[in-house]
Design brief:
This protein is mostly helical. Helix content is about 55%, strand content about 10%. It contains 18 helices and 10 strands.
Amino acid sequence: MWRNYHKRCRTHVMLSDSRDGMRSMSRAIIFPRGDADLPRNIAPQRSFKLSEVPQVSRSAVIAVVIFLIAHLALLIGLTASEKFVFDEVHYVPAARQMLAPAMSQPMLNPMHPPLAKELIATSIAVFGDSALGWRYPSALFGALAIVAIYLCGLALFSTQAPAIAAAFVAAFNQMLYVQARIAMLDIFALGFGLLAIAAFMHGFRRERPHALFALAGSLFGLAAACKWSGLFPAGVCIVVIAAIRLLQGWRTLFADARPGDWYRPDLWPDFRWYHFALCFVALPVVTYLATFIPLHGLSLPDLIEAQRRIFADNTTTAIAGHTYMSSWPSWPLLARPVWFLFDKTDDDHIAAIVFLGNPLVLWPALPALALVLRDFIVGRRWDAFLIAAFYFGSWLAWALLPRTLGFIYYYLPAATIASLAPVYVLRRDGLPRWLLWAYVGVAAIGFVTMLPISAAFVGTSMQTFNRLMLFQSWI
């Protein structure tokens, strides 16, 4: 599969394999130094053409329509619970504190960066200190996250239909819906992070990705300024670029190079190390630190102390347990949800908000991700590579942290990216087109079924509640 070049007596020895295994050294083909990088019997890989992406004007119109529909849908019943829901008790008071003429002490919620709380504070200043003021920015960024999935779909699939289908699947995943209707930090990090991933995906196959990579880096800085977990997909980009540059430095080639390969020796010919440093180090750091200026000014000691406090609070292992805590291996299985709200409205009815996810989206996504992983490893497909990289990078990064307290809503970024996997599988050649839209319909049925325990304004009976609780661990 690989051609690895090694210095040997002014020659390069190429080691390649076939589908049946690695060829022996006796079958190696030797190319004298100075020959072209590609063997003569293999055509150069076709460069990616911008014409393969749907027209920008049409895509922009569709993106705006998706945003408006999603935003309006997320606003319905947004203020149904006028009291704090789950962790709003931490973040709304911190946002209120930012609106005071003089910052009181101690600073509330110093364990997270300020940008998401600054956005909530801005909304409170505009709409008032009410449920609408607390939650409106979350609905805004939830709609942006759905648009970002559409943009990712355009980059990966190059056609409108599967990109739109991916946006629907992401919207019908209860995780995004629930998180976009509560004043917590995760949806802000998700919105910025997915837009950054979309920019990176669009730049991945371009000859000059500089502007899109710079945009991605800036957005990653904003995602990290909401919550440090926003750095996980940025780390994926850094690892991807470093791996490709390392292979190019080794002058590595695929034996049977194809246009759809995730690695190409001619990828980003003009993207230098200083471009990399600017896009994925300097710009993220500058945009991240800029969000601290409204609170700390330009005081370097205060900025350093703020980072020290965030690091200490997010890496400590001395955190008490929680009723709804869960560990990262259980999140894809939806083993332990988090109940954000459970209010009895009368003897037989409740208003409930559970962060669970749509089983008809997230369970089928697991075998789809297995096929994606296979296509990346065996077929070397670049679209499968990017889906797998951002899904597993966003999820498995939690396994590296010493923090013992975890919740399933930490799985939100990976779960949203997972929406791309079923679409990737169902658009394969040989499958009827209606199958993809049938799956979108199944996802919609699951969404409607779970809606009574996902939105407080709907409400449900105890009988329906008991029927929806499929496992004891869900209660």
